[in-house]
Amino acid sequence: MSNIDFDDILNLLQQRANRPLSLKEIQETLDLSAAERKVIGKSLKSMVKDGTLVQLKGGRFALPGRVNLVVGTLSVHRDGYGFVAPTDNKAQDVFVPARHVRPAMHGDMVVVRLERSLRTGRPEGRVIRVEKRAYQTLVGRYLTDHGVGYVSPVDPHLQDDLLIPPGAAGDAKPGQMVLAEIESYPGHSRGAAGRITEVLGEATDPDVEIRIAAIQFGLPYEFSPEVLAEASEVPSTVETQDLAGREDLRHLNFVTIDGETAKDFDDAVAIARLDKGYRLWVAIADVAHYVTAGSLIDKEALERGTSVYFPGTCLPMLPEALSNGICSLNPQVDRLVMVAELDFDLSGHRIGLRFCQAVMHSRARLTYTQVAAVLIDEDPEVRSEQQHLLADLEAMRELAELRIEFRRQRGSLDFDLPEAQVMLDLQGRPDNIIRVKRNLAHRLIEEFMLAANEAVAAWLVKQHKPMIFRVHEAPTEGKMAAFQEFIAYFNLGISLPVEGVKPKELQELLDRVAGQPEEHVINRVLLRSMPQAYYSVNNQGHFGLAADDYCHFTSPIRRYPDLAVHRILKKQLSEQKESKLCREVPLQEVAQRSSSTERRAMEAERDIVNLKKCQFIVDKVGETYPGMVTSVHAFGFFVELQEIYVEGLVHVSSLSDDFYQYEEERHRLIGMNRRREFGIGTQVEVRVHKVDLDRREIDFRLIEVENPGRGTRNEGRGKSKRKGSSR
What we know:
Blueprint: H1 6-15, H2 23-29, H3 34-49, E1 54-55, E2 61-62, E3 69-76, E4 82-86, E5 94-96, E6 109-116, E7 123-132, E8 137-145, E9 148-153, E10 162-164, E11 176-184, E12 193-202, H4 206-217, H5 225-232, E13 247-248, E14 254-258, E15 267-274, E16 277-285, H6 287-290, H7 296-304, E17 308-310, E18 313-315, H8 320-326, E19 334-345, E20 350-367, H9 368-375, H10 380-385, H11 390-410, E21 419-424, E22 430-436, H12 440-462, E23 469-471, H13 477-487, H14 503-513, H15 519-529, E24 534-536, H16 560-574, H17 587-617, E25 624-633, E26 636-641, E27 647-651, E28 660-663, E29 668-671, E30 677-679, E31 683-692, E32 697-702
Parallel strand pairs: 13-20, 14-20
Antiparallel strand pairs: 1-2, 3-4, 3-6, 4-5, 6-7, 8-9, 8-11, 9-10, 11-12, 15-16, 16-19, 17-18, 19-20, 21-22, 23-24, 25-26, 25-31, 26-27, 28-29, 29-30, 31-32
C-alpha cells in the first residue's frame, strides 16, 4: 500500500465489525511500510477528533455505530436536557436526559452511549466522554454566597455556575460582569471551576453589554493599531488623480435615503423620466478603490464579514475613516462610486442596463420619515423644503410602485412583518420598544437595491465569470406539508405539486390574507418555514425573490460579499488580467466565511435587542397586558404584547386550570378536560411575572378569564391593566 487513505481505514473497520481493532492490528492488516506505520497513527487521531471513529479503552478503534456509540455536538436546552447532533449528519439527533449530560457542557463534542430509558423504553443517550471542549472561557456575573464565589454565565445554554476558589477572583466585586477561564471542567458529581481573568465592568453599562456580546459571539471588537494606521493613510477627500477613467455624474440629482440614525451611506439614487419609461441610477460606494485585496484592512474586513448593528452603536466592518468618511456617500461632497444605470418600461420591466465607474455628488441626505412625509402624508411644509427634489421623488414613487407590482406578478414573496426598534435615552438605556413597519419610503429604496443586485448578477452570469451569489433555496417538502396543515385551520390551502411549490403560489396566499386577523400569524409561520439565505459560488437562484440570478452588490461598506462582487465587476469592466486575482481569497472561502459571519452577527444583534427588551420591561413586573400567542411548544407558548413589542413565555407548568397536551402538527396546547386551547394567534391577557436579564428571558403568567371554556383566537382580549388601576 503506497498511500494511506481514510476510506481504507473505514473499509477495514467495516469488514472487521465484529470487534474493535488496535493500532498494531490496523498496521499489520493494511500491510504498511515503516514510514506509513508512523503516519497512520496521526490519521487515526484525526478521525477520532472529527468523530468518524471512537477510541475505546485499551486504545482500540471502532466505528461509533458498531459499538452502540454516537459522536456529535451536544446542544443543551434551558431545562437541562440536551441533544447530540451526530457528526456524520446521517443519523437522527440523540436525546440526552439532564441526569446524563455531565461531564459535558453545551457545544462540546461528545461520545454518547445509546441506551433504553427504564421509564419510557425509548432510546436515549448517556455522555461517556468529552472529545473536544467548546468553551475555554466564559462571560458572566460574579456573585458570592456565604463567602463562596462563583460566576453565573450569561449564555443560557450553560446551566451550571463556575466555581471561583479563594484568591481566584482578582479585583472582581460581586455583581460585576467578568471574563473567566475554566481551569477544571465538570465531572459526574462536581461542577466546573476557574479563575477570573478580566473585570468587564458593571452590568448596567451599555458599553459593557456590547463588549460581552463581542466576547460571547466571537465578534472582533476593536481594530488593531496596524489596521488603523493603514486606514489613516487613505485620503479624506476625492483627489484629482482618482477621477481618471471615471464618468462624471455630478450633474445628476443623487440623494441618499436612510434611517435617522444611519452614519454610513452605501447607496444613492437618481432618476430621469424617459419617453416610455424611466432611467434609474443606483450609485454604490466604490469601497474597492480604497480597500486593496490582501491589505490589512481587507483581511480585517473579511474576518468581520459584516458590520454588526446594535441599538445606538455599531461594530463596523471597516474603520470609521472609511465607513463614515471617504467611502460614505455624505451630502454635498464628491464621492467615487460604482453605478448601475437601469432603464425600465412603463410596466416596470428592465429593458436596458449599463455599469460604470463614476464620481457623484449627493444633493441631500434624506430620511425615510422625510420621504414618507413628502410622498405619503403630502405634508405641505416638508414638500416645500424639498421642492427642488419633488419631481424626482414623485418619479421614484411611480417606478417603485411599478417594480413592486412587477415582482408581485413574477411571484416574489413580500413578507410584511414589523421589526422592533429600541428607543434609547441619553444614558443608552431603553426608553421604549416600538413596532416599525415598512412604508413606501422603505420599499422605494428596497426596490431599487433589489433591481441593482439582480441586474449585476444577471450581467455577470452572462460574462461566465466566477461569482458570489446570494442563494435562497426552496422550502422542503416536509416544511410545506406542515405549513399546509397549519393554514387548513384557517380554511386556507395551497397546492403542493410534485416539482415543488412555487413562490407565486405562496405570494397569492399572502395576498388573500392581507388585512385579515390571521395575516400576521400566517406571515410569521410561513417565514419560519423558509430556509435561511446564504452565499455560494453556485447559482441556485433566489426562491423568495423568484429570481434566477441574484447577488449582493449594494452594501460594500458593511458586507464583504458586496465588496467581492464589486471587484469582480470592476475587473470585468476594465478587462484586467487574471493575474490580478492572485492576492484575493478564493471566492468559495469568501462565501462560506461570509455566511458564517452573517449568522454570527444576527445572533449577536438578536441577543442585544432581547436584552434591551428585558431591561425595558423589568420595572413592569406585576403589570398586565393583552397579547397574542406567536409560537407554541411542549414547554409552553410565547406571547407578543400588543402595547410593547416584546415577547415572553407562559410556561405550561403555570397553567393550573387543566392538564395540557402539545399537538405539534396543529401548533397548539389543548386542555385534556376542559378542551381549552392555545394556538398561534390566540388572544390572551398576561401578567409580567419575572424578568431574567442575564438569560434574556421574560416570563408571563396567564390572566384567567371567567368561564374560559374552549379557547378561540379572540379569547382573553382586553384592555391593558396597570398596577393600581381598575378595569
